[in-house]
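G.,

No rush on this.
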Amino acid sequence: MKPLSPEFYTLPTLELAQALLGKLLVHETEQGIVSGYIVETEAYMGPLDQAAHSFGGRKTKRTEVMFREPGHIYTYQMHTHTLINVVAEEVGAPHAILIRAVEPVEGQDLMSRNRNNLPKKQWTNGPGKLTKALGITMEHYGTLWYEPPLYLAEGREVSSISSGPRIGIDNSGEAVHYPYRFWETENPYVSKYRAPKKTFSE
């Protein structure tokens, strides 16, 4: 499999978030190759997006990679989970796209073991689940999506794309309602949406 070219990642963030759907996420591990079609993404639009880690132009040890060239890998920890993102936009414009869910393709026996032999639909239907299934860790922080062993390749066409609010960003003001989540319509591996909790100010 051939990695996508660096030019692919130069698309505007919202376009890239949709273009990622159907692409094949590949990890060449010591135990074998695991891969899955991307079926759900979330775009985070940098300094003006209250839900983004780089809101207000915050540049920290964690977010530093977001200020680099598009196509870098941005991983971060949430509780016990590793989440993985595609850095987007030009240098100094810290946008990123979270990969929320994938459809298992190659290495399914290894994925099953990595996910404690849970039912297949639960292996990769969430951002922390898919990294466990595919053996993705914080060690991938700052590497490039077009250089193995972790990379994106051409996958399959997606016939229908849906969009809606992002998940798990309840304390993000009006950004909680932005329709920056994209998914392959009716794909069974898309994560479950839970409406944000209402606050007295809404």
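When you get to it, here's the other one too:
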Amino acid sequence: MNTEPRSVQQLINGEFTESNTTEWIDITNPATQEVIAKVPQSTPEEIEQAIKTATEAFQSWRVTPISKRARVFLKYQQLIRENMDELAALLTEEQGKTLADARGDVFRGLEVVEHASGIGNLQQGGYIENVASSVDMYTVQQPIGVCAGITPFNFPAMIPLWMFPMAIATGNTFILKPSEQNPIVTMRLVELALEAGIPKGVLNVVHGGKDTVDALCDHPDIKAISFVGSTAVGKHVYDRAGQAGKRVQCMMGAKNHAVIMPDANKEQSLNQLAGAAFGAAGQRCMALSVVVLVGESKQWVDEIVEKSAQLVVSAGKDDKDLGPLISKQAKARVERLIQAGIDEGATIKLDGRGCQVEGYEEGNFVGPTILDNVTTDMSCYTEEIFGPVLCIMYADTLEEAIKIINTNPNGNGTAIFTQSGAHAHKFQQDIDVGQVGINLPIPVPLPMFSFTGSRASKLGDLGPYGKQAVQFYTQTKTVISRWFDEDASEGVNTTISMK
């Protein structure tokens, strides 16, 4: 019996093909350490072929009627809905998150596909008649060419769907590089995209690590790159691709704070806090990893600990509250930062290290962990832990809490829990963070808006999906036209003045 793990294929010119590489990366189930597949480091020749194919396909796709492009994504959203359970199961096996989280991952990407199907209402220019005598002026939003996307391990369905549907719907072609840690569900989504009607060469997929990333950043035929991932890699992509003259958008690391005012609805606030801090095992850039307790809410610590301790850790397919971390390296890093917090003076209120799940003794499990009395100079605060760890801090006033958050370099998301309209208004006005929740822990916008993380959490002016994605993936062209009557042969004077 052949037990060799299957290989993940590439997509080049509409064909799924095996790579000729000699370098393969194992994909492991994070709950069992079983190697379930292997993914190639695409060769330079394969990457070049994918880009060449996309460049050629752009010439016909860019002039495909916008209604036809829209219908592709109407069909695509239907196919995703029909295959939701399969997609969630694939995602859970390779990424580790619970089935409920996996469905949410797919669904939030599906919402962007639905938005892309309305591209005819989004990709519109403007027109003014008679800006001067017999002169009209109008703008059109045209696709820019071959675009690329580099996606992370933590949302292997949602984030690819943030990127290629909007890029392709606006008339571009696309090269996708999924995370090398879990590309299987991404490839299934790509299969469904072809089934929906995306033509050959319009969507291509290559694999690998830094070599593939650098090739995409450097290639002159790629006009724009969208990236979601760690801050270190995001800065590298932004600098390298920017120097090559490309448009770049990079969504990166975060340190998201929740402020709890003493007038907040206690039960609702603490329930939401536990889910936002520990959901997806804390492996999301919008996780609420810091809570700032203001005034009398400082007395709620024991109840935060009690609610957090009730969360159940298990393999993702068992669909409890938390699954494993993505890798042994990720687990080791999280545990190192927990210990660093203790060594630097934080008090551990709930310790998730050494978490064991029966039947999954090799899994990368860390249970909910709470560090109390955290200060801004501790490494558990200055670094993004990316695990199920909540840091508790204190402030005497709302102004002090706002200062803590605004001093942190990151600006992805934040939230306030209060029943005071005055407090909420002051917070949303004074806070220097791109996405703000009011009695809502994870303020990720729906696709009719755009993801608007800020400061060190984002490089580039425009965010993924929504209105800003249409701007990112198109070039505005202004046309000024004058037409003369056929018999207008007299009275037309030549002028060289700028009027």
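The longest strand covers residues 135-143. The chain has a mean pLDDT of 96.

Enjoy the weekend,
O.
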